[in-house]
Amino acid sequence: MRSLILALRALRREWRSGELAVLWLSLTIAVAALSGVGFLVDRIGHAVELQASEVLAADLRVESDTPIAADEQAEATRLGLKSAHLTTMLSAIFNGDANQLANVRAVSAGYPLRGQLSVADRPFVSGSITASIPAPGEIWPDSRLAAALGAGIGSELAVGARSLRVTRILISRPDQSSTFVEFASALLINDADLAATKLIQPGSRIRYVLLLAGEAAQLDSFRRWHQGQEARHERVEDVADASPQIGDASKRAARFLALASLVAVLLCAVAIAMSARSYVRRHLDAVALMKTLGATRRLVLAVNLWQLLLLAAVASVLGAAAGWLTQLWLVRVLQGLLRADLPPAGPWPAVVGFIIALAVLAGFALPSLLQLTRVPALRVLRRDAGPPALSFLAAAIPVLLAIAGVVYGALGQLSLSLWFLLGLAAAVVALGVAGAALVRSAAHVRGSAGVAWRYGIANLARRRTESITQIVAFGLGLMLLLALAILRDDLVTDWRASLPLDVPNYFFVNIASDVRADFQHELQSQGAQLTRMLPMIRGRLLTINDRPLSELHFPGVRGRGFAEREQNLTWASELGDDNRIVEGHWWTAADAGKPLVSLAVEYQDSLGLKLGDRLRFDVGGENFDVTVASFRKVKWDSFRPNFFVMFPPGLLDASAGTYMTSAYLQPSSGAMAQLVHRFPGVSIFNVGDLLAQIRAVIDKAVSAVQTVFLFTLLAGLTLLLAAVQASREERLYETAILRVLGASRRMILTSVLAEFALLGAVAGVLAATGASLGGAWLAHALDLKYRFNAGLWIAGVVGAMLVVGVAGWISTRSVVRVAPRSVLY
Amino acid sequence: MTRDIVLEARNLSKQVSSPEGPLTIVRNVSFTVTQGESIALVGPSGAGKSTLLAMLAGLELPSSGDVVLAGQALGALDEDGRARLRAERVGFVFQSFHLLPSLTALENVMLPLELAGREDARAAATDMLGRVGLGARARHYPRQLSGGEQQRVALARASVGHPTVLFADEPTGNLDTATGERIAQLLFELNRGSDTTLLLVTHEAALAARCDRVLSMDAGALLRDVAGAAAHTHA
Ligand SMILES: Nc1ncnc2c1ncn2[C@@H]1O[C@H](COP(=O)(O)OP(=O)(O)OP(=O)(O)O)[C@@H](O)[C@H]1O
Ligand SMILES: [Mg+2]
Q1: Interface predicted TM-score of the whole assembly (ipTM), two decimals
Q2: Average pLDDT over residues B146-152
C-alpha cells in the first residue's frame, strides 16, 4: 500500500510538472480512436448487415418443400431468435370471372423481420410503411395483380376455396426480388387463412419458409445446430446465398472494417509504445534518486507499476468516453447512413479499447520498467551510468505477444493473422535496416546545403537510435495507412464499377429458338442494350467419376442442392469478360463437340471436384459423359446470363432448349408492353428493384468504409504526435543551448524542418513500397483486382514529408519561444 | 588610456511572480564595463547573480531597465537580433557545462562557428580544443568526459568565436580545487590573450581577487563595486 500512496503522490507531482502529458495524451487518444473505430464498426457493420438482410426479409431463411420440422422452430425459439412463417405457392386468383396466376404468400405476425412493407389504397402509387400484415379474412394483392383482376379496396378475391376481402394494395415488400421464381405478381394473406384455401394438397408445389432474425452469435449457433442435424430436407439460406452481390459487398465491407480497426489498433500501439519509451527514459533519474534515498528494487518496481496502471485506467476511461461521444456525433452526421432504430453500440468496444491499451502499454513499458529498477544509484553522480542493456528477447516477447493478441483478435483467423504478423515483422526489419542506412549516410552530409539543413540532417545521425525508432514508427504507421487507403480506393472503385447505371435490369428467359432472332431484333429496335444470349437446358448431375451421387457425401447445403436438384446448363464458345479461368483451359474452336465441361468455382468447391474428373449428366433422358476441362470464377454481379455448368458448342446442340438473355432498358419506356404482346411465351423478369437494393447496400458499405478510414487517420495523427513529442524534451534542451550560442529561430526551425522532412520522406518512400506490396496482398485477401496507384505513392511520400516536417516544426515552434535561461538553469 | 565601454547595465530590475506574490530578484542594478576588464560577481546564494548574468547576456529579458552590449541596446532587439549579437559578441559558460550530448567535443566547439557560417570551423575548433588541452579527446562525446574536461570543452566553445564579452556562471563550482584552478587559468589566459572582457560569477575569494573589479550583490541589489585587491582586503 505504501507503494500505491507513493505512486499517487508521484503522479500528482509529475502531472503538475507536465511530465505525464504526452504519454497520457497518446494513451487517451489511442483509446478514443480504438473504441471510436470499434463503436463505429459495431454500428456500421450492423447497418450494412441489416440493409443486406432486407433482401431476405430476415437474417436467415430455413426453406423446405415440406412443412418445416417443429424442432427448427423450437431451436430458434430456444436461442432467442425472432421468427415468422412464410408459405408460398402459385395459384390462380379469381375476381368474379377474371383470373390471374399469382404467387400466394401466406405470412404470420412479425413478417417481414427485416425491411418493411408499404401499402396504399390504389395500385401503382407510392405507398406508406405499415408494421402490420393482413388480418384473417383479408388479402393484399400487389399493384399488378389488382390491376389485372380489376380489383380495388373492398373487392372479394377467391384464393382456392376461400374468399378474402381486399383491404390494402401491396406496393412493395423487401423480399420481392430475392429469387427469380417469384417474379409473378404476388399477394399477401394471413397464415391463419391458409388451411381454409385448401390449396395445400398432395402434389402441389409449395415452399415453406421459416424466417429468422437475431444477433450474429445466435444465428451462428442456429446454423451450427442445423448443420449438425443429419439428413434434413430443410435448407438454410442467408443473404449471401440469396444474393451473391449483396453478400459480397457486405462481407468485404465487414472485412475492410475489421482491417481498418486493426490498423487503428496498431497505429495506436506504436503511439503508446513511443510515449512509453520516452516516459521510461525520463524516469531514469527519478528511479536512481529513489534508490540513493534507500528504496528497494521491489518498491521502485511497485511504485512504477502502480503509476502505469493508474495512468492507463484514467486514460482509458476518458478515451472510451471520448470515443463514444465521437461515435455519437458521427452517427448524427451520418444520419442517412445509420438508421435511428439501430441499437446503440454496446460497451464492448470500450472494454476492448481498455484491454488493448493496457496490453500494449504493458508490452512496451514493462520491459523498460523492469530495466528501470536496475538503474544503478550511481546514475545520480554519473549521467552515463544507464541501466544494463536490455536483452533483446526480454523486450521483444511481451511486445510480440501484445501485438499478436491484437492482430488475432481483429482478424480472427490463425493463418491470416500469422501472415499479417509476418508481413509486419518483415516491414519493421526492412524499415529498421533502411533507417540505419539513412542515418549512416546522413552523417556524411557535406557541401552546399545551408548550415541549418546540414545541422538538421546531421542530427539524424547524432540521435541514431531515436532517428531509427522514429523512421520505423512513422514508416510503419504510414505503410498501414497507405495500404488501407489503396484498399479503400480499390474497394470503392470495384463496387462502383460493379454496378454501372446501365447494368442490365431485365432478364428474358424461355426464348424459343425459332423466335430468338426476332426477339433480339425487337429488343434492339426498342433501344435496349443487349448482352449475350445463351441457351438454357435443364439437366441433372448423375455421377462423379462413375460413382452415383447417392453414394457421395457433400458437406455443404449448396453441394447437396447441386447434387439433388435439376440444373440449368448451357453451351458457349466465348468465355465473356465476366468469367475468368482459374484452372485448366477454355476451349478453342478445335474443341467443338468434344465431351468437356467448364464449371464455376462455387460448383467445384461445393462438390469437391478437380480437373479431369468425369461427370455424367442426364439431359432430357439422355446421358452425357464429360471431363472437367476448366474452372471459372464468375462475376455474378455482371447481371448477364451466367451458368455454373458450361459445355463446348456442338455437344448439346441437338437437345431442345430455350434461350436466355438480359438487357438494359429505360425503366419508363413502354417497351415491355410491346414485348409481352409480341412474344407471350417469353418470361420477363425485372431486376430493377434488386439492383436498387444492391446499390443501397453498396452505398452504405462505401460510406462506412470512408468514415472508418477517417477515424483510422485520426489514429495516425496520434502516432505522429507521440513520435514527434518523443524527442521534444531533448530538442527543448538543445534549442536553448543553440540559442545561447546565437542561433536564430529561423535557423533552429529550419534545421528541425530539415530533420523531420527527411525522416518523413524516408519513412514515406519505405511506407509506399511496403504499402504497394501489402496492398497487393490485402487486395488478394479481399478478392480485389490490385491496381498500382502511382498517385497515392507520390502523395504518400510528399504527404509524409510535409506532415512529419510540419508536425516537427509546430512542436518546436513553441520550444523556441521559451527563454533559454528557464531551460538551462 | 581610455577604453571603450562594451557592456552597460542601466537600472536593471527583474521581477518574477511566486506563490507568495511578485518577487523582485534583481533591483535597480547599474554599472559599466570597459573592454578587456575582468570582473567578478560575488554574493550569497540567491542574491540574484545568475539572473543578472542571464539578463546581461540577453538570455532573459529584464522587467525594467536595459542592457547595452557592444553598443547595442538589447531591449531594442528582437529575439533573433539578440541571438545574432550573441553569435558575434558573446560567450557563455555554465556551471553545469551544458554541452550537447549528441555532439562530440569537437562538434560542440565547432557549433558556434558553424552557426556564424564560418568556413574554417573545423580548423579553428581543433585549434581551440588543443589550447584547452583536449586535442586528443576531440571525438569523444560529453558523457565520456570528466566534469573538468566537459567544462574545458564548454570554455573552448564559449571562446572559439573570440567574443567581446565572456560570461561565466560559477565555471569552477562543480569542480575540485585543482581542476578549478586549471579552468580559471584558462579563462584569464583567454581574457588577456584576445582582449576579451570577462564577467564571472564565483563564490571563491581567490578567483574573485584575480579580477580587476569585484561587484558584490545581496538580495538583488548591487552593494559594492571595488577593485580586486581592495575587495580582498575589505572582505
Ligand atoms: N523563474 C523564477 N521564478 C521564481 N523565482 C526565481 C526564478 N528565477 C530565480 N528565482 C529566484 O531568484 C533568486 C535569485 O536567483 P539566482 O539564480 O539569480 O541566484 P544566484 O545568486 O545565482 O544564487 P546561487 O549562488 O545559488 O546560484 C533566487 O531566490 C531564486 O529562487
Ligand atoms: Mg547562480
Answers
A1: 0.82
A2: 88
What is the distance in A from the centroid of ligand 1 to the CA of B63?
15
Q: pLDDT higher for B49 or A527?
A: B49
How many folded domains does chain B comprise? Answer: 1
Ligand nearest to the CA of B169: 2
Phi, psi of A598 (to 5 degrees): -120, 130
Supply A246's cell numbers: 449483396
- Identify the band that residue A336 occupies on the pLDDT scale cut at 50, 70 and 90: low
Q: Is the CB of B202 under 6 A from ligand 1?
A: no
Q: Is B16 in the pocket of ligand 1 (CB under 6 A)?
A: yes
Ligand 2 centroid distance, CA of B45 (Å)? 7
Three-class DSSP labels, A611-674:
CCCEEEEEECCEEEEEEEEEEEEECHHHCCCCCCEEECCCCCCCCCCEEEEEEECCCCCCHHHH
- Name the β-bridge partners of A192: none
Pick from B65, B67, B71: which is nearest to B88 by CA? B71
Q: What local confidence, expressed as pLDDT, does residue A216 receive? A: 79
Asked if residue A42 lies in contact with residue A349, where contact means CB atoms within 8 angstroms, the answer is yes
Q: Has residue B233 been placed in a domain?
A: no
Q: Which of B100, B109, B160 to mutate to test the interface with A (most CBs of A within 10 A)?
A: B100
Contacts of B25 in chain A (CB under 8 A): none
Q: Do B114 and A825 touch (CB under 8 A)?
A: no
Q: Identify residue A526 by its one-letter amino acid code.
A: Q
In terms of average pLDDT, the best of A294-298, A666-670, B99-103 is B99-103
Q: Which site among A734, A740, A825 would you substitute to test the B interface, given the most B Cβ atoms closer than 10 Å to its Cβ?
A: A740
> Is the link from the previous residue into A134 a cis peptide, with omega within 30 of 0?
no
Cell numbers standing for residue A289 = 534518486
Mean pLDDT for the stretch of residues A421-448: 80
Cα dist. A795→A263, A488, A602, A711, A782 in Å? 19, 15, 40, 19, 24
Range of the domain at B172: 5-227
Please indicate, yes or no, if residue B235 is contained in any of the structural domains: no
Atom 3 of ligand 1, nearest CA residue: B16
**Interchain contact, A740 vs B86, CB within 8 Å:** yes
* B234 inside domain: no
Q: Is B45 in the pocket of ligand 1 (CB under 6 A)?
A: yes
pLDDT of the residue at A346: 67
Question: d(Cα A105, Cα A525) in Å, to the nearest integer?
Answer: 37
Rounded to the nearest angstrom, the minimum Cα separation between B34 and chain A is 22
Q: Is A614 exposed, middle or buried (0-12, 13-18, 19+ CB in 10 A)?
A: middle
What lies within 8 Å, CB to CB, of B4 at 6+ separation is B34, B35
pLDDT tens sequence across A686-735: 777 767 777 777 777 777 777 777 777 777 777 777 777 777 777 788 88
Is the Cβ pair A819, B60 closer than 8 Å? Answer: yes
- Whether B83 and A746 lie within 8 Å, measured CB to CB: no
Interval A762-811: pLDDT, tens:
888 888 888 888 777 767 766 666 666 677 678 778 888 888 888 888 87
Question: In what helix (H) or strand (E) does residue B89 lie, and over which residues does it extend?
Answer: helix B79-89
Q: How far is A739 from chain B (nearest CA, A)?
A: 6
Residue of chain B whose alpha carbon sits nearest to that of A452: B115
**Would you say residue B232 lies in a domain?**
no
Pick from A396-405, A423-432, A440-449, B9-18: least confident: A440-449
